[in-house]
Structure formats: structure tokens, C-alpha cells
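Worked problem 6 (solution included).
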Amino acid sequence: MEKDRNFILSKINLLLIAIGFIIIVIGFFLMTGSTTTIDFNPDIFSTRRITVGPMISFFGFLFIIFAILFKPKKDK
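Solution. The predicted structure is:
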């Protein structure tokens, strides 16, 4: 017996949310790096950690908002 399942989000929405999540993880990965507590490491002020990583993560969060609000066209 098959039940008619009506989900709020369609498959395309869930796929777009997964892509946004992957973009966020990539941004956080770009912000990470090796840290040492003994010596000062000037790499903590690199452009990749301060600018690129947060911008990619922010884009991922915006993409997830778009993915939730996206309404696929109905086929007739």
C-alpha cells in the first residue's frame, strides 16, 4: 500500500541544500590550518583564511536560503 507523500521541499530543493552545505564545508576547510602555540605563525593572517574562506561560506549560506525558497516549475 503506497501512501501519497507530500513533502514541503522537493527533490531539487534537497539537492540544492546539499550543494550549499558542501560549499559551506569547503569554506570552513579553507579557514582551517595548522596552529602552533609555541611560535607565532603569520599564516593565520593569510588572505585564504581571512577573506576567501568566509566569503565562500557566506555564499553557501545564501545558496541554502535560495535553495529553500526555490519553487520548481510544475509540469503540465
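Discussion: The chain has one domain: 11-69.
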